[in-house]
Design goal:
By secondary structure, this protein is α+β, with helices and mostly antiparallel strands. Helices cover 16% and strands 25% of the residues. Strands 1, 2, 3, 4, 5 and 6 form a six-stranded mixed sheet that branches.
């Protein structure tokens, strides 16, 4: 049997899910077994969310299989539940038929949420956002900033020093073009060392 239902509010996680009220198509098979009714089916829905790398909208189709056994209400006596309190250590959740009806919402929610991608991306090779300005890197793969680590900023001036020496501090009002005067001082300094 096939049915189309509206998705409830909680069919998703923070970044992706089935929007509330959107159609969920169910293809169901019901089998009568000794304990109750075995429900096997497939749910198909449209997912909406956002890329965890660049925050662009993401849309995708989801198809998930599920299977659950709904017990007859009178089956409690057979299973020993009516004889005493239920075993709290039993972690398996059991579902009951309510007359001729069964509630699929919890089963569907578990199946859908477990099938969702934990980190949805708009494309497999999405580069994300620039950490400096927030630009989308997939739109401009050559995007970059010439940022200097503040711990090394003080050393940045040393790279402009002439080869073979350190930059000479300028004395009171000296100009840069005084090469002859500096050559004379250098020669005098060498003569003093001899």
């Amino acid at each position: 049997m096939t049915r189309t239902i509206e998705a409830p509010d909680d069919f998703g996680i923070d970044v992706i899910g089935v929007p509330a009220g959107s159609p969920v198509e169910l293809d169901l098979r019901l089998e009568s077994v000794v304990e109750g009714v075995l429900v096997t089916g497939t749910a198909a829905a449209r997912l909406r969310g956002e890329c965890v790398r660049c925050l662009e909208p993401v849309e995708d189709d989801l198809e998930v299989d599920f299977q659950e056994l709904y017990y007859y209400p009178e089956d409690d006596r057979v299973r020993g539940v009516a004889a005493g309190p239920s075993d709290e250590d039993d972690e398996e959740e059991t579902y009951r038929l309510e007359g001729d009806l069964f509630d699929l919402q919890a089963v569907l929610r578990d199946a859908v949420v477990l099938a969702l991608p934990l980190q949805p991306v708009c494309q497999d090779d999405c580069l994300g956002l620039c950490s400096e300005c927030g630009a989308r890197l997939s739109d401009d793969p050559d995007h970059h900033h010439d940022a200097v680590d503040p711990r090394w900023a003080a050393l940045q001036g040393l790279s402009a020093a002439p080869e073979g020496g350190h930059p000479r501090p300028k004395a009171g009002g000296e100009g840069d073009g005084n090469d002859e005067d500096s050559g004379a001082r250098k020669g005098a300094a060498e003569n003093q060392e001899k």
